[in-house]
Amino acid sequence: MPITLIITLSIAYVAVGVGLWKTRSWAWKGALAFVVVGIVTSLVQGVLGLPIAVLLLLVGIYLVLRREVFTDKPVPPSPQQ
After folding, report:
1. Which residues of 23-49 are buried (b: 16+ CB within 10 A; e: fewer)?
2. Where are the transmembrane segments (predicted)?
3. Which of 12, 16, 41, 47 would be a feasible disulfide site paired with 30, CB 3.0-4.6 Å?
4. How many angstroms separate the Cα of 34 from the Cα of each of 7, 20, 23, 79, 81?
5. What are the tens digits of pLDDT across the range 32-60?
């Protein structure tokens, strides 16, 4: 994996992590995108680590979708379009 890709992904993960810490709505979408990408890469990598990876990623999806449980602030309603 090229070093620039690793650095770029690391910065993106840190940015999403800080956004999650501050309960920003864009960070939840970014985290969900990272979870989906993680599931896809787990499927591509092979069968050996697949059950554990899928279980961990499903837990990640659950935590992202149930974010109101983990914050004291009320979750703002999504804008009606």
Report:
1. beeebbebbeebbeebbeebeeeeeee
2. 33-65
3. 16
4. 15, 13, 16, 23, 25
5. 888 888 777 767 777 666 677 778 778 87
Q: Which of 23, 16, 25 is nearest to 77 (CA)?
A: 25
For residue 13, how far is the Cα from the chain centroid? Answer: 9
What are the helix and strand counts (H, E) for the chain?
A: 3, 0
d(CA 38, CA 58): 10
The pLDDT tens digits of the residues spanning 7-23 come to 888 899 899 988 888 88
Angle at 65 (CA atoms; ends 25, 43), nearest 5 degrees: 110
**How many whole angstroms separate alpha carbon 34 and alpha carbon 12?**
10
CA–CA dist 54, 81 (Å, integer): 33
H or E segment and range at residue 41 = helix 25-45
